[in-house]
């Protein structure tokens, strides 16, 4: 049985309630959050982006082929068209996501900073910025 770890990234970043629009998804992947980021910037006035991935992430443990195979056998469905966005290198995944947002024509040119939240220590480590 998998345990869902609650990450207190808000506390690690020193955020108070209402300071940030927090968008969560599996792996913290930027392309998956794009719709919400655009809404946040255009309608809520958000002008800075912080990407946080974390150590011991489940996204490091599988590939698209593995999850597609699981869906095929358990659900009898074809999910070959879905990119589940797992990654093999945690730090690189953060840098990739900074680039995805920086290069998106739908995202305003705002500061983007990427961090890794260390679940073992509760510390947050900066790995890059735009
Ligand atoms: Zn994770």
From TrEMBL:
<feature type="binding site">
    <location>
        <position position="54"/>
    </location>
    <ligand>
        <name>Zn(2+)</name>
    </ligand>
</feature>
<dbReference type="GO" id="GO:0008270">
    <property type="term" value="F:zinc ion binding"/>
</dbReference>
<comment type="similarity">
    <text>Belongs to the beta-class carbonic anhydrase family.</text>
</comment>
<dbReference type="GO" id="GO:0004089">
    <property type="term" value="F:carbonate dehydratase activity"/>
</dbReference>
<protein>
    <submittedName>
        <fullName>Carbonic anhydrase</fullName>
    </submittedName>
</protein>
<dbReference type="InterPro" id="IPR036874">
    <property type="entry name" value="Carbonic_anhydrase_sf"/>
</dbReference>
<keyword id="KW-0862">Zinc</keyword>
<keyword id="KW-0479">Metal-binding</keyword>
<dbReference type="InterPro" id="IPR001765">
    <property type="entry name" value="Carbonic_anhydrase"/>
</dbReference>
<feature type="binding site">
    <location>
        <position position="57"/>
    </location>
    <ligand>
        <name>Zn(2+)</name>
    </ligand>
</feature>
């Amino acid at each position: 049985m998998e345990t869902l770890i609650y990450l207190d990234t808000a506390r690690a970043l020193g955020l108070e309630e209402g300071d940030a629009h927090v968008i969560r998804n599996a792996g913290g992947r930027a392309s998956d959050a794009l719709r919400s980021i655009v809404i946040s910037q255009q309608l809520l006035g958000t002008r800075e982006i912080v990407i946080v991935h974390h150590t011991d992430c489940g996204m490091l443990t599988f590939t698209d082929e593995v999850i597609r195979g699981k869906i095929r056998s358990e659900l009898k469905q074809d999910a070959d068209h879905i990119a589940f966005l797992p990654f093999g290198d945690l730090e690189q995944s953060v840098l990739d996501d900074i680039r995805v947002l920086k290069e998106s024509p739908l995202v305003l040119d705002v500061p983007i900073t990427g961090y890794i939240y260390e679940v073992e220590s509760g510390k947050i480590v900066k790995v890059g910025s735009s």
